[in-house]
Amino acid sequence: MMGKPIRIVLSEEASIQYGELNKIVGEETRKGITNSIHQQLLKSIKQKIELLKINPQAGIHVPKNLMPKIYVNKYDVDNLWKIDLSGYWRMIYTLRTTEIEITNFILDILDHETYDKVFGYKKK
Asked: Widest CA span of the chain, in angstroms?
């Protein structure tokens, strides 16, 4: 796996989430806000994307029996990874490898509550 170029691709959902976050941060910046939850989250996402370009397996591997059916059915994934972001957010991705390259396909960017629902975790 090492030595191959690594490409980062966002799903339509992740791309929309990322775009909305970028828009909010842009508005905050114009208003003179220099440190917000949104800015910290965007910075965290950008840092993790850079990390994944270096090490596509930087996240935590999700065992097959714990992979939410939504990702298996929608994206036909056979591997799933999660990486922690600031503010208890998570980025969910899968690895797709060919002879030519490795693609980190980012499926979702989730807040903690949504992450718990998608993965079937119950509040105690």
From this structure: 47
Residue 25 lies in a domain: yes
* Residue that is written with structure tokens 């930087």 in the block: 58
Q: Which domain holds residue 62?
A: 6-119
Q: What is the DSSP string of 80-112?
A: EEEEE-GGG-EEEEEEEE-SS-EEEEEEEEE-H
Q: What is the CATH number of the domain that holds 107?
A: 3.30.2310.20
Show contacts of 77-80: CB within 8 Å, 24+ apart. 77/107
Q: What is the pLDDT of residue 2?
A: 59
Query: Per the domain annotation, does 39 fall within a domain?
Result: yes
Number of domains in the chain: 1
Tokens read off for 93? 């991705």
Strand partners, 81: 61, 93
Task: Specify the pTM.
Answer: 0.91
